[in-house]
Specification:
Helix content of chain A: 25-40%
Largest interface: A-B, 27 and 21 residues
CATH superfamily of one domain in chain B: MetI-like
CATH architecture of one domain in chain B: Orthogonal Bundle
Radius of gyration of chain A: 18 Å
Number of strands of chain B: 0
Strand content of chain B: under 5%
Mean pLDDT of chain A: 90
Strand content of chain A: 15-25%
Distance between the termini of chain B: 36 Å
Oligomer: heterodimer
CATH class of one domain in chain B: Mainly Alpha
Number of helices of chain B: 16
Bound molecules: adenosine-5'-diphosphate, magnesium ion
Largest sheet of chain A: 6 strands, mixed
Largest sheet of chain B: none
Number of helices of chain A: 10
Structural class of chain A: alpha/beta
CATH topology of one domain in chain B: MetI-like fold
Strand order of the largest sheet of chain A: 6-7-8-3-9-10
Low-confidence stretches of chain B: none
Number of strands of chain A: 10
Chain lengths: 263, 363
């Protein structure tokens, strides 16, 4: 039942139609932490250039779900296919997928011992084998894109939270990922810094990046997402276009949740 | 507006004289309350009682050069026990006319250490230079080629021996310790248990017993006719011993790195080796600089334990001089001198580690 619900998600607005080809396919995926059943059969197909916002109460498994997509967590049943490669124990495949999937964390996780520039150039130099000079040019390009080029030689500890999160986004972009995963990217930020990070994410959306964003920023969901999913107790309870999702939530739990966060 | 002007004005007012400058410092640090005042006075009294006589003993009434007989007539320190036996203390039984060779080797070592103190100079080229430098030192010490007469390692002794044991011991133990720490945190059960067993076994025995095993028990298991250099055996024992302690300190550092760092590294596609080398270890090793240096310092001093397997390190050569009837009774001076040398070594290490910490601080 829930599976149909997700798949029948109504078409997003014409102007930003995703392609038909699937970028990520998750089929009946289960995950346990010890005896604790965290994800209880998740089905989700993300098309190329599609943008998905996931919301839901704390502990419902949102982080775990997106962390399974780049194998920071291992799923125990079902299938996850990213860009045509299935996630198994094959280390080579895991590394390949990680190179294609960018991830932005709630707490930025910049490398504190490296300058901003080095943080960005690390992946290109050591994973993509880009020559150092080229990698640094690439890094500067993305730093300009997130409006922070003048901080290139500072260390993360010298930057504000909003700046650090923009650096973290730029660090992922340096690997030219095909998908970007965001795990509550603004929830550790002071209110006045949230906008600068959301603006960068909106820019990314305009350029056609495939994105899965766990967030409770409903304004962002309304203006950027093709689909909004609601998760509870390890399941995707419902998913719909933002218009429908906010106007006509179908499930009681969704209604309750929305009333709590929108008031 | 008026309040802003007022604040500006207030900022101009200088602090009272009694809280700054020499007077302020003295007041704050020495006479801050009756208890501190009392402590200051007591300390000054003892310094007054001890300082001048000590100074007289060390510098005014002392004999710097000259025979032991002169010392016996003099109330002051007998520094000539050092000056008369200087070369034996420093070089032990190394052939007298060849002692320029260990001297040169030590100068090369000090030169390299001094040059390498700046982290910006740590390049691959410097690494190769070190290899060449160490080989040159080895050739100087051993001889047997390039027209240098061969000197058996059983004749090595004094400061060069102490330095060899320390420098090789510490530089080999450090990476070995890191591998053991990584092994202990490995997800592979075999590697993990091997590391744990190794670390706990080694930490469970004193260094002396390892040295004994290396020098007495180990050769019993070797086929007849094969002998392994005694210094090498002591060296290996020191390395194995120190590595176990470094491993535990490094493990502590690794535990201090948040999981997010691993995840960020992995999510940009770095594999285990690169994650460790580029992200985790640089941070973990930095956190544990102070305890690591403590271990290195005590390992440096512990090299003196090799006396028990009859190697003539710096301490042993000094003791040998003291057993000479002529110089008996001047052990104070000899030990002060040795303590000074050891102190210089330890103090430089401690100082260098503080410098490194300052340079690596990122906030
Ligand atoms: N490493 C872990 N070990 C055990 N339980 C975990 C672990 N990570 C998350 N959990 C549990 O799994 C559930 C889902 O967590 P999470 O995916 O972080 O939820 P959300 O992101 O929706 O708040 C929570 O109950 C959490 O306590
Ligand atoms: Mg979460």
């Amino acid at each position: 039942m829930k599976k149909e619900m997700v798949n029948e998600a109504t078409a997003p607005p014409e102007s930003r139609l995703p392609e038909e080809e699937a970028m990520i396919e998750i089929v009946d995926m289960h995950k346990w932490f010890g005896d604790f059943h965290v994800l209880k059969g998740v089905d989700l197909t993300v098309k190329k250039q599609e943008r998905i916002v996931i919301c839901g109460p704390s502990g419902s498994g949102k982080s775990t779900l997106i962390r399974c997509i780049n194998r920071l967590e291992e799923h125990q049943r079902g299938r996850i296919v990213v860009d045509g490669i299935e996630l198994t124990n094959n280390l080579k495949n895991i590394e390949r997928i990680r190179q294609e999937v960018g991830m932005v964390f709630q707490h930025f996780n910049l490398f504190p011992h490296l300058t901003i520039l080095e943080n960005l150039a690390l992946g290109p130099i050591y994973v993509r084998k880009t020559p150092r000079k080229e990698a640094e040019e690439l890094a500067m390009h993305f730093l300009e894109k997130v409006h922070i080029a003048e901080q290139a030689l500072k260390y993360p500890g010298q930057l504000s939270g909003g700046q650090q999160q923009r650096v973290a986004i730029a660090r992922s972009l340096c690997m030219s990922p095909k998908v970007m995963l965001f795990d509550e990217p603004t929830s550790a930020l002071d209110p006045e810094m949230i906008k600068e990070v959301l603006d960068v994410m909106i820019d990314l959306a305009r350029e056609g990046m495939t994105m899965i964003v766990v967030t409770h920023e409903m304004g962002f969901a309304k203006s950027v997402a093709h689909r909004v999913l609601f998760m509870d107790f390890g399941r995707i309870v419902e998913g719909n276009t933002p218009e429908e999702f906010f106007k006509n939530p179908k499930h009681e739990r969704t209604k309750l949740f929305l009333s709590q966060i929108l008031h | 507006m008026p309040s802003a002007i007022l604040q500006n004005h207030e900022a101009e007012i200088r602090p009272p004289v009694t809280s700054v400058g020499v007077i302020g410092w003295v007041k704050q640090n020495l006479f801050d309350g009756w208890f501190n005042t009392l402590l200051t006075l007591v300390t000054v009294y003892f310094l007054y009682r001890i300082g001048p006589p000590l100074f007289r003993w060390m510098f005014m009434d002392s004999v710097w050069f000259g025979p032991a007989s002169e010392c016996n007539q003099n109330p002051g320190a007998c520094w000539s026990i050092i000056s008369s036996n200087f070369r034996f203390i420093l070089f032990g039984f190394y052939p007298y006319d060849q002692q320029w060779r260990p001297l040169l080797a030590m100068l090369i070592l000090f030169g390299f250490l001094y040059y390498s103190r700046d982290r910006r100079r740590w390049t691959k080229r410097l690494g190769y230079a070190w290899i060449i430098g160490l080989s040159a030192m080895g050739i100087l010490m051993r001889g047997g080629i390039l027209g240098l007469s061969a000197v058996e390692s059983s004749q090595w002794g004094g400061l060069p021996l102490t330095l060899i044991l320390s420098v090789f011991g510490l530089t080999a133990a450090y990476p070995l310790g890191i591998f053991l720490a990584l092994g202990r945190r490995s997800k592979m059960p075999i590697i993990k248990s091997l590391s744990v067993v190794y670390i706990e076994l080694i930490r469970g025995v004193p260094l002396i017993s390892l040295l004994f095993m290396g020098s007495i028990i180990f050769p019993l298991f070797l086929p007849e006719g094969i002998t392994i250099n005694k210094i090498l055996r002591a060296q290996v024992a020191i390395i194995l011993f120190t590595a176990a302690y470094i491993a535990e300190v490094v493990r502590g550092g690794l535990q201090g790195i948040p999981r997010g760092q691993y995840e960020a590294a992995e999510s940009i596609g770095l594999n285990y080796y690169l994650t460790m080398r580029l992200v985790i270890l640089p941070q973990a090793l930095k956190i544990v600089i102070p305890p690591t240096v403590s271990i290195l310092i005590s390992a440096f001093k512990d090299t003196s334990l090799v006396v028990i397997i009859a190697l003539f390190d710096l301490l042993k050569t000094t003791q040998s001089v003291l057993s000479n009837p002529e110089w008996m009774g001047f052990s104070k001076e000899a030990y002060i001198f040795i303590a000074l040398l050891y102190f210089l070594g330890c103090f430089s290490m401690a100082n260098y580690s503080r410098k490194l910490e300052r340079e690596l601080s990122r906030d």
